[in-house]
Design goal:
Number of domains: 1
Order of helices and strands: HH
Radius of gyration: 23 Å
Oligomer: single chain
Shape: rod-shaped
Largest sheet: none
Length: 58
Amino acid sequence: MADWNDDGLIDSAGLALWQQNYDPIGPGGLGAAHVPEPTTLAMLALGGLVMLRRRRPR
């Protein structure tokens, strides 16, 4: 899997090819890096509820 140029060797030529084609975000520009964790969404919702509760006059 590490032989990027199919020459049978894992060497700097294959590394250079991998570096040229590496996309950290993923194909199409959409990757998992842009999707928030479900626990983060739950914490934001809980924080919003707490803020709403504090703003109501007593």
